């Protein structure tokens, strides 16, 4: 793959991640690659951007994230089209989405230049409400009631089926997100390559299992005002009885992988 323009994204507020971003920026600049850093990372020879949002204006060949899964999720939300990301676990926790450590970076650059890599494409989802389309999510979209003193009634429509029940909320998860919030409340683990979504009710009054459905449109109505939470990082709102539509996003998330293997995230969970 060509590496003419590369963005380096460090973990917010992490000195170890910012130092790593400076180090790999210098390595790429030495190879005559145009490098973009995000403030406060400032490297001679690189172009410093003041915010992550500015990446959406640039046609990049690659983004490199240095942090945990949260850093990767933020980067994907702000990238243009299907820019691939090389994920490096620096200062993160388990790094479920990470591909390499810092020690592997030089070998990874060589592999990319020689096209000895695999592009792993993942489904993303997007929510629409009241005429507005929100930022896409890689893991999940969580719709929950704002008023915690009253139980809300949720109506969930998929194809010709409707489920109506009182509950705290509902999670619409992708296969990538099946190892996250949905899994923590009993949702299934899925292979990352599947073209499906998971509907996971949150604390229903009458027990409802998670259900795996084709990645088509899902409509949600609620008897209360709701939060619409994308990847546990961005929150939007809906009012009573405003329809929330969740569907597959037009652009996939693309990961740079050095080896093609399945069950990647499950392996990091110990499976």
Concise structural overview:
With 271 residues, the chain is an alpha+beta fold.
Model description:
By secondary structure, the chain is α+β, with helices and mostly antiparallel strands. The chain has 2 domains: 5-122 and 252-268, Rossmann fold (3-Layer(aba) Sandwich); 125-248, Probable inorganic polyphosphate/atp-NAD kinase, domain 2 (Tumour Suppressor Smad4). 16% of the residues lie in helices and 36% in strands. Strand 7 and strand 8 (132-133) form a beta hairpin. The relative contact order is 0.16. The model has no long low-confidence stretch (mean pLDDT 94).
CATH architectural label of the largest domain: 3-Layer(aba) Sandwich
Query: Which homologous superfamily in CATH is the superfamily of the largest domain?
Result: Probable inorganic polyphosphate/atp-NAD kinase, domain 1
SSE series: EHEEEHEHEEEEEEEHEEEEEEEH
Number of domains: 2
Question: What is the class of the largest domain in the CATH system?
Answer: Alpha Beta
Q: Topology, pairings included?
A:
Elements: E1 5-10, H1 15-30, E2 34-38, E3 47-49, E4 62-67, H2 69-78, E5 85-89, H3 105-113, E6 118-122, E7 125-129, E8 132-133, E9 140-145, E10 152-158, E11 161-167, E12 169-173, H4 181-184, E13 196-202, E14 211-214, E15 218-222, E16 226-230, E17 234-238, E18 244-248, E19 253-257, H5 264-268
Parallel strand pairs: 1-2, 1-4, 2-3, 4-5
Antiparallel strand pairs: 6-19, 7-8, 7-18, 9-12, 9-16, 10-11, 10-15, 12-13, 13-14, 15-18, 16-17
